[in-house]
Structure formats: C-alpha cells, structure tokens
Amino acid sequence: MNAAALANPALAKDEFDPASIVTNDPVVRVEAISKHYGATEALRSIDLQFERGKLTTLLGPSGCGKTTLLKIIAGLVPATSGRIVVNGRAVTGPGPERAFVFQDFALMPWATVMRNVAFGLELKGRGATERNRIARHYIEEVGLQGFEDKYPHELSGGMRQRVGIARAFSVNADVLLLDEPFSAVDEQNRRKFQEDLLRLVEMERKSFIFVTHSIEEAVYVSDRIVLLSPRPGRVSNVIEPRIDRTANPDDIRRDPGYLDVVEEIWQGLRHYAE
Amino acid sequence: MTLFGYRIPMMASLLVWALVWEIVGRLDVIFLIPPMTAIIAAGIDLVQTASWQNATLVTIRSFIIGMALAIGVGVPLGVMMGRVKIIDNIFGLWVNIFVSAPLSALVPVLMILFGMGEATIVVTVFLFAVWIIVLDARAGVMQVPTSLIEMARSYGASQPTIMRKIILVSALPEILAGVRIGVIRGVKGVVIGQILVAIIGYGELFELYSRSFDMERFWALTMVLFAAAMVLSAIVENAEKRIEYYAGAR
Amino acid sequence: MSVMSDDTSVAPPAGATRMQSLRLFAERRRSFWVVLSLLALFTAWEIAGRIPISFAFPTFLDTLAAFFEMVGDGTMIRAFFLTLQPLVLGVAISALLGIGIGIAMGLSDKLEWLFAPVFIVLQAAPMAALVPLVTFVYGIGLVAKTLAVIMLALPVIVLNSYKAVRHVNPSLVDMCRSFQGSRRQQIFRIIIPDASPVLFAGLRLGVAAGFIGVMLAELLITPTGIGDLITYHRSVANYAHMYAAVAAIIAASTVTLALLQWFETNVMRPEKRRS
User: Fold this and answer.
1) Considering chain C, what percentage of its residues have pLDDT values greater than 70?
2) Best interface-test mutation with B: which of C9, C31, C121 has the largest number of B CBs within 10 A?
3) Quick one: average pLDDT of C162-167?
4) b/e C27-38 (16+ beta carbons within 10 angstroms → b)
5) pLDDT tier at B122 (50, 70, 90 boundaries)?
6) Rounded CA gap, C183 and B227, in Å?
7) A237 Cα distance to chain centroid
8) How far apart are the CA of A158 and the nearest CA of chain C, in angstroms?
9) Which residues of C touch B96 (CB under 8 A)?
10) Do strands A26-37 and A81-86 pair parallel, antiparallel, or not at all (unpaired)?
11) Kind plus residue range of the DSSP H or E element containing A34
12) 3-state SS of C8-74?
C-alpha cells in the first residue's frame, strides 16, 4: 500500500507526499517514530507535523497503530526509535502541554463529576476553590451543569465522555489528544458529540489530534486526515477535506464534497476489510 | 522478574526461601526449625516407613471417596439450582452459608455421629469441598447463553439433549474451576479432619511427631502434604486450561 | 467465593398498575424463601432428631432450648467473648500486614517474585497442620490462638490485596500519568482507591478463614471459648448443648460475613449499587 494506490484526480489537489508537509508553526512534530512489540513491528518510521489550532485525525483500519502513535505522542508509551517534539522541545513523557481523552473515559468511579474534571488540577496541587471554579466552567461548557455532584455510574456513556473532555480542557493544554472518544457512545449521541466537538474547537482555539476508525466521523470533524496503513503502521496518505463548516450540520452530511471524500477514503481502505 | 537480562521463573524464589531456612536451621535459632537438608533427609527416610505408607493410603482413600461424593452430589445439585428456580431458592441460602462457614467447628459433631474413623474424615472432606462445587456449577449453568439453548431448541433438540450437549458442556469451565477449589478445600478438610480425630492417617503421625518433638519428620510430612496439594491443584488447573481453550471464544 | 445471591428476577410487568404489586411480591419473595429454607432445614433436623437417627443427634427444639439456656446463664456470652478476642486481634493484624504486603507485591515486581510463590503455597496448602506447632512456642494463651488465626487469614488477605493492585484499571493509571501525577499520587489517588473493593473482599475472606483458624485453635490446642463449650458438652454427652455451641459459631460467622458483604456492595462499590 502506498500513496499511489489512493491516487485519484478528484483528490489530487488535497494530496501530499507526507514527508514534504512543512508548516510554519507545527505544535507537534513526529520524527521517524518506530515502535516494536517484541518481534512485531507496530509502527515504521512515521514522520508527521501537526499544525497549531487545527484538528488532525489519525484514521486507519484496526492494527494500523493509530492508538499506539497517539499514546507515543502523549508520552504514555515509549517509542522504539525516533522523537516527539512539542512546541519545539523534544519530549519523552507526558507533559502539561498535552491532555489525553480516553476511549474508555478513564473516570474514577469513586469521585464525583466535579472531582473527576478537576483531577488534573488536583494533581498539580491547585487549591480547591480555584480548581473547582475552572472545573465548573468546563462542566458548563460541555453541557453538564447540574451534574457536578453525580458519580460516573449515574451518567450515560455520552455524558461520561463529556466529563473526560471537560477534564482534558480544564488543565489548559495546547494539544488535546482524543483516542476514539466516541466509540463507546451510541450513534445518535455520536453525531451530537461531533457537532459539539466542532463548536469546542472553534471556541477553545486549541490543537486537536483525534483517533478514529470511522471515515464519516473523520471527514466530518477534521481539518486534516492522516491515513495509516496496517502491518506495520505507516503513513499512506494525507487528505484535507476542506469542508465548509459554516453550513449547518445536516447540510454538511449531504454535501457532495463531503460524500466524495468519504468515498475516496473508503476506496483506499476497502482492501483492508476482511 | 528479570535479572541481568535473564528471566527468573517466579517459583524460583522458593529456592531462596529454602536457603534462608537452611541457614536459620543451621544457626540453631529455634528447635522448631531444623535445617532444610535434615528435613529432606528425614523425608526420604519417612516415605520408606510402613507407617507413612499406611497413613498415606488411608488419607488418599478418604480423600478420594470424599471428593467423589462431593463432585457426585455437588455438580448435579449446582446444575439443578441453575436451572430450577425453586431448588435454587430453597438450597441457595444454605449453600451460601456453608461455603464460608467455619466447618472445623462441625468436625466434633461428625466425630460423635460417624465415629473416630475413616467415615468422619470422608464426611469432612465432602463438607469442605461440596459447597464451592455447587456454587460454581450453578454459576456455570446460569451463564449458558440463552441464545445457545434457543438455537438447540429451534433445531428440535429434546430437553435431555439440550442438558447433555449444550448446558453441561457450556458450563464445564466453571464446573472444573469449582472442582479445583473443591480439591484444595478437600485437602484442607482431610488434614483438619485427621488432626482433630488424631488417631488415623496423617493426623496420627502429626500427633506422634509433635509429641516427641521430632521436628524433622513433622516438617517432612508437612512438606509432602503441601507439595501434594500444589500438584493436585496444578493437575486440575491444567485440565481447566484445556477446556478454556474453546471457552475463550465464548 | 461466598456470594449471597440476590437474583430475585422480576417478571416483566404488563401494566403500570400490576407493576407495583409484582415488585412488592418480588421483594417479599426473597425473605419468604429465606424463611422457607430455614424452616425446611430445621424441620428436617427436628424429624431426624425425633426418630432419632443417632443417640447423639438431639432435636432442633432441644438444641434451641439449650442455646437459650446457655445465653441465659451467661456461658455463651462469656465463650463468645473469649473466642472473638483472638479472632478480632488476629484478623486486625492480618489485615494490616496482609494489605501492606499485598500492595507492595502488587507494586513491585521484585517483591512479587520474592513473596508471591510463598503465599500461593500457603494459601493452597493445609495450614491446619501447622497449628499445633504454635503451642510449642507460645503455649496455650491468647497469643497462640491469635497466631492460629493469622496463619489462616494472612495468606488469603495478602493474595487478594496483591490481585487487587494488579487488576487496577490500567486506563486510570494512564490517565494519572497523562496529567503528570507522581508515583505517590498514582498509588494513593488511583491504585489504592480503585483496588479498595477487592481489598475489602479479601478482608472478608480473611475473616472467614479466621473463624476456621480460631475454631481449630480452640479445638486442638487451647480448650477455651466456644471450642471449650463444644469439647466439654461432648465429653459429658450433653449433645443438645454441644450442637447449640456449634450452630452458634456458624451463625455468628454467617452474620458477620453477610454484614461485611452488605457493606461491600452498598458502600465500597457505588458503581454497582442499584440506583
């Protein structure tokens, strides 16, 4: 699998050689990252740059190492070789400029929504008044006002992930790393979520790196999509959907440009389907 | 654990402890702990004595009869509890009480009911082992997917066939897990029974050695017992793993 | 493994009006079945005693009378006082030591390598064989009984605490790391809180093992407390009193464990509680 396999006149304008992507101010640079698990090669020399203020999606079939790459960027998993540069500085572990949103929410079942959202600040030793003020702000921003004193088991899956997102926002990181955040959420809520996410991207002016296996989701929310191919994980293509997000959500989903990009990506990925 | 790049198997630490034991024994700190080498030597002597062989025979016999009864009663009862609500409601309470009750208090009662002999030991083994076997068999039957039973019914399977070919087979991993814990509890039961009765099998030997302060033989006998318990548990665990091979897809 | 089943399944209600009566019935049914199964065993006991199946098998009513007699003259209360001392002491020491060792084993691979096999052997092995040994060193007093309790309760508490730490949700640990939590914060804010329901379950199993240990000690090495009641009444062929003592200790252990179980499901696991 290589970029040529995806070559299509309709998309040519959006297609780059991944190595040549250079922007003025990359917030995260992935340089020659490789990852081996014993004899298994999970990622092979990945080079990527993530632009500031944009939402970039890592998309690919299962086994392409997209979650592994995200966790390497987060500093949760060590890379076998290569380096991660955030805001111009090489990093080896988690840092305050990155915040992670977990696929399984990773909420503490013994803590209220308020404490869960404020947990990042609690670990940094912020005072209770300050961290609760910040947490309350983001709880409202994700639409959970009134649920501050509830426990995670009292919330639906979608509401739990809102807590996870509010927690990531509250530490005021530059980059938000989202690992398939909506995969445990049912279809109707998923759509609502995607719309809310776009609103938050607009409001918060942060950079987002988003992992998903849903083509529609990727095209709908992303400024840029990095397609990964599996075994071993490599960058196979980079696509910029260039969708007019000022239109209302239902129109976007019916927009021919949107549907074309979805179809293109599917054509490129279909031979990975079983 | 890895050391200098080599993986050291977990159980290897037991050798370290044996060494510590040997040193403590050699230092003569306390008469309770003779050197490990002396215990092993005593153990080699011990297994050649007629008294040990007879005691072992008696112990194994009571254990096997007690376990056979426990499995023979426990599995059917557990399966019935899993399938029939009324049986579950009537027996559930007692099974749950006895599975964690201090059954050692019941042994004196057994001694007067069944005499100071093998029968008491057999019943003790049975009582120690049976409850967990019932509970796990019940749990196994309860988790058989309804869709599997409906599938068999839709293909025209009769109730006995469904029981034999679907429910029992499907519940086998849990049943075996119950049997494994039952075996471990049964070994504890046979020892507790014999020690409290104190005139048969290993109980008699333990009594004899501790009375004559023959610590080497006492520990040798203990270690034989501990090893037997571990080996038995490993055997059932092995069977469990084979069963789980297909159960994994469930 | 002691799971009190609370699976009184409710038939799907047809209408809003029938729902309440059905639910009421289901709630009553649980206690109804408890009473029924208690009655079933006690009746069987009474009949077996009336036949009698053995000269040493008193009827249920005789046993009950003997129980109230012993409660009335204070022997039962005194006996429980003596039995519960080493039990509480032994379980408390085992809990402190066991949870500490278990958590340390769960956090450190080296300690796991060193201690896990020992406790695996001690839990699977018939520790009862070693109970007589403690008399050699500690005589037949409170210390010996407490040690017997510790010998049986400690391994199960250690292994459960160890498993509790090893089975902590890895995602929560990652979460703590991603917010740059220190190892200390990781242990005290994530690992121990997340492990605490299983830690508590281990404690409950430790209490069950402790009851076995204290009875063994009282029957084998130091005839005091409930064990003395059992041994004494057996020696004078006062079987109703002996049975009453046995039933009393089994009932005491059942009630204790049921209370711990209730505490565990209602307080320790808010996420599993029915809301």
Assistant:
1) 87
2) C121
3) 91
4) eeeeeebeeebe
5) very high
6) 39
7) 17
8) 17
9) 2-5
10) antiparallel
11) strand A26-37
12) CCCCCCCCHHHHHHHHHHHHHHHHHHHHHHHHHHHHHHHHHHHCCCCCCCCCHHHHHHHHHHHHHCC
**Contacts of residue A154 in chain C, CB cutoff 8 Å?**
275
CB atoms B104 and C212 under 8 Å: yes
Query: How far C103 CA sits from the closest chain B CA (Å)?
Result: 17
Structure tokens that stand for B145 in this block: 């997917």
- Residue A262: in which H helix or E strand, if any? helix A256-269
Among the partner-chain residues C179, C189, C273, the one whose CB lies closest to the CB of A171 is C179
Backbone angles phi, psi at A234, to 5 degrees: -140, 160
Q: How far C187 CA sits from the closest chain A CA (Å)?
A: 12
Contact (CB<8Å) A74/C178: yes
**pLDDT over 90 percentage in chain B:** 17
Q: How far is B173 from chain C (nearest CA, A)?
A: 16
pLDDT tens per residue across span A51-105: 888 888 888 877 788 888 888 888 888 888 888 888 888 888 888 888 898 888 8
Q: How far apart are CA B138 and CA B87, in angstroms?
A: 11
Terminal C-alpha separation, chain B: 32
Strands B6-7 and A89-91, by their bridges, are: unpaired
Question: Which chain C positions have a beta carbon within 8 Å of B182's beta carbon?
Answer: none
Contact between B105 and C121 using a beta-carbon 8 Å cutoff: no
By 3-state DSSP, what share of chain C in percent is helix, strand and coil, each rounded to 5?
Answer: 80, 0, 20
Q: In order of start, what are the domains of chain C with their CATH numbers?
A: 85-238 (1.10.3720.10)
Contact B109 C246 (CB under 8 A): yes
Q: Contacts of residue B113 in chain C, CB cutoff 8 Å?
A: 54, 56-57
ipTM for the complex? 0.85
Record the pTM: 0.82
b (16+ CB within 10 A) / e for B54-66: ebbebbeebbebb
- Among B10-14, B188-192, C59-63, C107-111, which is the least confidently predicted range? B10-14
Closest CA in chain A for residue C181: A123
Q: Which helix (H) or strand (E) holds B73?
A: helix B50-83
Inform me whether the pLDDT recorded for B27 exceeds 60.
yes
Phi-psi region of A44 (alpha: psi -120 to 50; beta: other; left: phi over 0): beta
Mutate to test the interface with B, among C127, C160, C215 (most CBs of B within 10 A): C215
- pLDDT score for A68: 87
User: Cβ distance A202 to A54 under 8 Å?
Assistant: no
Residue C141 CB: number of other CB atoms within 10 A? 12
DSSP 3-state assignment of B7?
Answer: strand
Which DSSP letter does residue A247 get?
S
Q: How many CB atoms lie within 10 A of CB B73?
A: 15
- At A82, is the secondary structure helix, strand, or coil? strand
Torsion of CA B73, C259, C165, B132, to 10 degrees: 0
Q: Is the peptide bond before A230 cis (omega within 30 degrees of 0)?
A: no
Task: Report yes or no on chains C and B touching (3+ CB pairs under 8 A).
Answer: yes
User: Could you tell me if A135 and A121 are in contact, meaning their C-beta atoms sit under 8 angstroms apart?
Assistant: yes
Among candidates C226, C58, C125, which has minimal Cα distance to B105? C226
Q: Mind telling me how many Å the CA of C176 is from chain A's nearest CA?
A: 8
Nearest to C124 among B96, B184, B213 (CB): B184
Enumerate the residues of chain B whose CB falls inside 8 A of the CB of residue C110: 1
**CA distance readout (Å), A195 to A5, A76, C210, C216:** 32, 28, 58, 67
How near does any CA of chain C get to the CA of B118, in Å? 18
